[in-house]
Amino acid sequence: MLVKTPGIVLHTLKYSETSIVSRIYTRELGLQSYMVNGVRGSKGNKAALFRPGNILELVSYFKREHKGLQRLKEYNYGIIYQQLPFNIIKSSLALFLIEILNKVLNEEEAHPDLYDFIEGSFVRLDTTESELSTFHIRFLSLLAMELGFHPGGNYSTTKPYFDLQEGQSLDEAPTHHLYLEPRHAAFFFNQLEGPALNNVERRALLEKLLQFFALHIDNFGEIRSWNVLKEVLATPATKSN
Predict the structure, then answer these.
(1) CATH topology of domain 88-239
(2) For residue 240, what pLDDT is reported?
(3) What pTM did the predictor assign?
(4) Which residue, 38, 94, 109, 211, is the most exposed by fewest CB within 10 angstroms?
């Protein structure tokens, strides 16, 4: 059957001289891998549509019983970014978000709310002029909520430490290192009104959040783009944001 759906590109690789295979998280079909023929060659390079992070409108030949590569009938831009590809800070953030999503998305089932959150995050990243220094932190916190392992309202100022292993607030730091100290916990649980964090604090909080994800996502592993993003976000333009 034919299925029309928006989708966000997560990964693309060359398959032959003229074809690619693209891993796309779609709104209607969940995570799918598509064989796309004839997009590379002398008559044009439509493969550029399938750069990671791009939001596309797709019409797919979908066979639910078929667990291999699906095929596309039609594809085009769903949203054309205005700033994200040309702004080094935004493009670095996008690469970080894409690497995270490649780690955590693995279901071939539709989750429209999760898709809407992801698409909305990339659109907001493209258009926002503020909050870039904490955009990735906020994204991770909200993504954990969408994935079902954010601890929600489990926070109290009388118990200001948050144990990442046990998922509970404590009145004092646990004996292990997997916890959020009070300022980090306050930001994590109450982002809109949480304390402003400096660059060093943001780095430390991000490291803890990556450890938090590793506790809940099998084979989460290292996030390589984080090292690049640290350098980009250390520039004077973002230190005070």
Answers:
(1) de novo design (two linked rop proteins) (1.20.1440)
(2) 46
(3) 0.90
(4) 109
